[in-house]
Specification:
DUF4295; about 50 residues; elongated; 1 helix; DUF4295 domain-containing protein; about 10% helix
């Protein structure tokens, strides 16, 4: 299972954003890589389900 990290950032224009970092394992090498996304706070749970 990939490790998930969420950091809440300041509000910009009335919408607060969160930086979502996921550790994803490569099928070829087995090494982990990290994918980072900036998403609006209400969409964090939806983003982590992917």
């Amino acid at each position: 299972m990939a490790k998930k990290v969420v950091a809440t950032l300041k509000k910009e224009g009335g919408v607060s954003y969160a930086k979502v970092i996921k550790a994803v394992r490569s099928e070829k090498t087995g090494a982990y890589t990290f994918k980072e996304e900036m998403v609006p706070s209400p969409m964090v749970q939806e983003t982590l389900k992917k």
